[in-house]
Amino acid sequence: MLVFQYGSNCSECEINGENRLRGDARFSGIAETIDDFELAFDVQSVRRRCAAADIVRRDGGKVWGVLYEVPDCLMSRATAPDGRKSFDEIEGKKYKRRTLQVRRPDGTVESALTYTVKDPQPALRTNSDYVRHIVCGLRERGVPDEYITKVKAIAAANNSDIAAEVEAL
């Protein structure tokens, strides 16, 4: 299954960590959304103690992310082997699956599965540790610098208390 990730799972150490997919998510490239979206921080993460990432419709916006090939059996709780987390479990009950069209840098358009927030809460604030995972993941995968700058600006606008830390990333 081709999966598009735009948040902390852009980072190799996050998505393939021991408490997630344990190396079974294979990097397939980077891509941007065909439809107009923008990154948002609008769902509370209990584990991270901050607002986590989402993508929301925004005229003229594009979201860059990372594509991974994930074994079909690891997508659903019903099909994940014993002792393994599924992608549905990793994303949690606050997110829903959706399919979207993405464009790779070479112009190839593909369908990919992603997760978006079921009930966005726009007044939430993110933190610099979480944003660091996103920025580092995007950078390690080769996402354009212009987009990384945009992510940092969105995070700083979301929580002005972390603006200086985020700018330094």
Secondary-structure topology with pairs:
Elements: E1 2-5, H1 12-15, E2 26-33, E3 37-45, E4 50-57, E5 64-69, H2 87-91, E6 95-103, E7 109-117, H3 128-141, H4 145-158, H5 163-167
Antiparallel strand pairs: 1-5, 2-5, 2-6, 3-4, 6-7
Helix pairs in contact: 3-4
The total count of helices amounts to 5
Mean pLDDT over all positions: 97
Residue runs with pLDDT of under 50 for 5 or more positions: none
Largest beta-sheet details: 5 strands, antiparallel
Indicate the CATH architecture: Roll
Sheet with most strands: strand arrangement: 1-5-2-6-7
Overall shape: globular
Mind telling me the CATH superfamily name? Gamma-glutamyl cyclotransferase-like
Q: What order do the SSEs take from the amino end to the carboxyl end, as H and E?
A: EHEEEEHEEHHH
Oligomer: single chain
How many distinct folded domains?
1
Helix content: 10-25%
Indicate the CATH topology.
Hypothetical upf0131 protein ytfp
CATH class: Alpha Beta
Portion of residues in beta strands equals 25-35%
What structural class do helix, strand and pairing data support? alpha+beta
**Number of strand elements:** 7
